[in-house]
Specification:
Length: about 110
């Protein structure tokens, strides 16, 4: 989310800023699925993102487990942006966009 501090974003429209944020969250190491996006009148950008992860449990044969975290990332473009990340409800449409359904929905609280 350091991209919110980029001087390049200052010259962009709100829609272009949202597009840049969606691209940053969806690509690279984050590999999130953006299922909602919005901009507030105060310049705050928000994206609701689902992150899926796979792990292997113990046992024989070992079980594969898929978990999903849905979070809202929000911040304001500027020199010292503060980014908030809070839990949000997962959209039901996510299961149509991913081939494997999660075994469990997890939260930031644990």
């Amino acid at each position: 989310m350091t991209m919110l501090a980029s001087p390049d974003l200052d010259a962009k429209t709100t829609d272009q800023r949202l597009d840049a944020l969606v691209t940053a969250v969806s690509a690279g190491k984050l590999d999130g699925i953006v299922f909602e996006q919005r901009a507030g009148r105060d310049g705050r950008l928000e994206v609701d993102v689902a992150f899926d992860a796979t792990g292997t449990g113990s046992g024989f044969p070992p079980a594969q487990v898929i978990v999903r975290l849905c979070a809202r990332l929000s911040g304001v473009v500027g020199r010292d942006p503060q980014v908030r990340m809070v839990d949000t409800a997962c959209a039901s449409s996510l299961d149509e966009r991913r081939p494997n359904h999660p075994d469990r929905i997890v939260s930031l609280d644990g």
